[in-house]
Write a sequence for this structure.
């Protein structure tokens, strides 16, 4: 379940990182951040491929995500996640259970895009952008190396579309050597979401057991 949370967090990393970048990388990240900030809502599709430390494929998943400020929802074949800025609901489709929690501290850093600010305050070193073709699109690729040796990530690589300033790809290298590669499709920043969209609707999920962990 945690990998899906990391997936969406990864999608938002580049937007939050703008305040910590510098020089040419800062200009590029600022544009991506501005495009997100100016939107009333973002909707996207993604595919996730997970590799172990030896480069062997472990799992893959596809899904959709939507976001509004610090609120988000993730939909995959196995789980749905809602986060309204305070409360999180994780629906396990196989178990037919929804787990309710109010993340705080380190937990919040894995579920809330804005909570990643605390990670970046500890430090990332940004390299100069490199021009590459990513998923058939001309892109800037920015590598970020963690200076905090105790954080979840050792490095993050972000590909930003040169024309639309949208995210094309994110590659996360975890502290244990695991690598998550997320490819973004159909990134659309022209959506308008209601706050209710980020709250679990009990009436729409009859027969689901609610496990309150608060």
């Amino acid at each position: 379940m945690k990998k899906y949370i990391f997936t969406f967090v990864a999608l938002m990393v580049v937007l939050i990182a703008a305040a910590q970048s510098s020089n040419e990388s800062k200009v590029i990240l600022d544009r991506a951040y501005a495009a997100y900030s100016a939107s009333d809502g973002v909707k996207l599709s993604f595919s996730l491929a997970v590799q172990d430390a030896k480069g062997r494929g472990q799992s893959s998943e596809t899904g959709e995500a939507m976001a509004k400020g610090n609120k988000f929802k993730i939909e995959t074949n196995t789980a749905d996640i809602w986060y309204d800025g305070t409360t999180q609901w994780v629906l396990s489709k196989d178990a037919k259970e929804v787990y309710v929690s109010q993340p705080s501290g380190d937990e919040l850093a894995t579920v809330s895009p804005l909570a990643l600010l605390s990670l970046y305050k500890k430090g990332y070193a940004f390299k100069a952008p490199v021009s590459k073709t990513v998923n058939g699109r001309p892109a800037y690729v920015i590598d970020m190396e963690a200076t905090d040796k105790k954080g979840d990530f050792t490095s993050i690589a972000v590909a930003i579309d040169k024309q639309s300033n949208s995210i094309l790809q994110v590659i996360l290298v975890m502290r244990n050597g695991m690598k998550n590669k997320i490819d973004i499709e159909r990134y659309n920043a022209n959506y308008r979401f209601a706050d209710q969209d980020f709250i679990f609707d009990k009436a729409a999920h009859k027969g689901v057991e609610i496990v309150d962990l608060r």
Q: What stands out?
A: The CA atoms of residues 21 and 126 lie 6 Å apart. The chain has a mean pLDDT of 80.
